[in-house]
Amino acid sequence: MSSAAEREAVAEQRTAPVVVTEAAPRGTPGVPVRPGAPTPLGARFRAGPDGVPGTNFALWAGGAEAVELCLFDEGGRETRAPLTELTHEIWHGFVPGVLPGQRYGYRVHGRWDPWTGGRWNPAKLLLDPYARAVDGDFALPPEVYGHVRDWPQQHVADTVRDERDSAPFVPKGVVVHDDDDWADDHRPKTPWADSVIYELHVKGFTRAHPGVPEELRGTYAGLAHPAAVEHLTRLGVTAVELLPVHQFAHEDHLLRRGLRNYWGYNSVGYFAPHAGYAASGTAGQQVGEFKRMVRALHAAGIEVILDVVYNHTAEAGELGPTLSLKGIDNRGYYRLQSDARRYTDYTGCGNTLHVVRPHVLRLITDSLRYWVTEMGVDGFRFDLAAALARSMHDVDMLSPFLAVIAQDPVLRRVKLIAEPWDVGSGGYQVGAFPPLWTEWNDRYRGAVRDFWRGALPDVRDLGYRLSGSSDLYAWGGRRPYASVNFVTAHDGLTLRDLVTYERKHNEANGEGNRDGSDDNRSWNCGTEGESDDGRVRALRRRQLRNLLTTLLLSTGVPMLVAGDELGRTQGGNNNAYCQDNETSWVDWGLLDDPGWQALFDLTSRLIALRHRHPVLRRRAFFSGRAHSADGLRDLAWFTARGAEMTERDWYAPAATLGMYLSGRDIPGRDERGAPIVDDSFLAVLHAGDAPAAFVLPGPPWARRYEVVVDTSREEQAAAPGVTYRAGASITVPARAVLLLRVG
């Protein structure tokens, strides 16, 4: 306890109903429950032993004393049936006549004793963790809390059990018919090195799209619509990374301010596609709609990667609602402190799933396999993955979670992306995840932002980031594509806002502008916010071209954020997690502006260039050594004088860097076993605010150079065809990237 006063208050509350043992429940006459099977977990429709169709229900609830299955008809009337069979801590039963579309939940009985972590409360209807569809919205009235939320002494409120029924106020699971074998689906199976990832929000991408029918906007069906898919194929991306689509709930503090959780990092159902994104219905139809979306994207050659949140749930801490796991077996699912009333929080969201426990690990891996085998997805980006890699306390790269993934015959074959940090001690783990994993490389983000705003003291860090971050990933057989390179993500400023604002502007979030990071590493080009000054606007667009060009020429896997290629703005809001409105939705009207259309065209052209040239998407790290008698190396760095960089040059302040990529020395062979040979390129990055002279390296590096990209130009069509002789001194425009093909 935190103080003598609290201990005294708690002692007083022990006279209230704080420790309760439930009597066994009694079922409703006429509901036949046969023994059924303990596997698979969840609600699975099938034929019974006598051929009569029905549903098998199975729930892990290790410390529970009794479990009631609750069935709901169309009018919301509840019928309860005890599950009396218990096998290896799994309560199970088969109910004949329960068909797909049936809405259900559980009431779990046990000891109410928050001091030891026991928070069983059968007054609260609980969502099946394995529910494959969810019908209804999560509101958060007092009835959905296991404790008396408005207890006068708030510091002990979580110890007083609330006896009110939550069933009218919570959504229900839905029985779904599994009848899809994916025989007509063809996964793109894009190699990591060839991948270009596009992070998008299912709702926000199409909510304002004029080419998508109104009734489909903001839905899985909307993302599958030809108008949405056509933008992705024109852009040239190979994968979409969807912000969370697991069923999620809105936080109470947002609902009280009239806001909603837009991003979805508040999961409560790990098998159910979020019902709010379904156009076809929420009584199981959302499952089929999601599958059709995946098929449409696969048919266009686009993989589907899910951003998944297995580190915490929407039930928060001891003062949070009781929606599912907390009421099934609180101490079995969550990490608790030595004071078991409190939750260990490595996530900043109130709780942390106890992934070391076998049944929790099973929940996560069962969910992952389900989304691959039955929903067709191609990979996952793990939110706060370091929290999943913790053993008992510390982050452990030999943890049960990582070990299980590495040996799983399904999961080890899909794309695995770690957000390699959490908020706990020792949680920053960039570069530490084992082979099979790629990582969001925030050191890439920081170095590129700092270079283009003139804040890098030298170019050492930039050199590593441009060439695949070998300092982070060249170990254990990892490859350059272990680095997912990004300049922006959903969390933070958009690309346009990165060159428009130096301060966050999150007032609309209702938190006094205290939320969101203060470390934006942005530059507003001299004016805070939007400007009518033509010079400022032109400079900002040039900076956008510089950032996108740098990203798409770097070794590693580039990740774009939906709308950055169009100049999307959030008005400086760098934490728009609760802005389910035009602030966050993609503004497709931007394409009517020739300037933003030109930015899209450049982005598409750069992606196409990357796809054509294997030297830009290497599968092995550069050696930096000469592979032939002429002394030509696979990677070389040049100063503005046209001389190769020395050790002293790497430590000297510099605004200009030349990077030579040899297409003659690419490791590996193509599918036919032939050597891979490509053009060679020289990229010149100049972040200075005035033009600079640059001497083009002479033989053996090149005889001549042809300009392929010049970011000083609004329109790129005029740039190709300009040639220079080797050894010539050229003028690099202020704040620009030149990409030159070697001849």
From TrEMBL:
Establish whether keyword Chloroplast is in the entry. Answer: no
So which domain of life are we looking at? Bacteria
Q: Name one GO molecular function term.
A: amylo-alpha-1,6-glucosidase activity
Q: What's a Pfam family this protein contains?
A: CBM_48
Residue ranges of region Disordered? 1-38, 506-534
Annotated Glycosyl hydrolase family 13 catalytic domain residues: 199-610
- Biased composition, class Basic and acidic residues, residue ranges: 1-11, 506-521
Q: Where is the composition biased (Low complexity)?
A: 24-38
Q: Which GO terms describe its biological process?
A: glycogen catabolic process
Q: Does the keyword Calcium apply?
A: no
* InterPro entries xrefs: GH, GH13_cat_dom, GlgX_Isoamylase_N_E_set, Glyco_hydro_13_N, Glyco_hydro_b, Glycogen_debranch_GlgX, Ig-like_fold, Ig_E-set
**Keywords, ordered alphabetically:** Glycosidase, Hydrolase
Q: Which NCBIfam families match?
A: glgX_debranch
| The family this protein is said to belong to | Belongs to the glycosyl hydrolase 13 family.
Q: What is this protein called?
A: Glycogen debranching enzyme GlgX
What gene name is listed for this protein? glgX
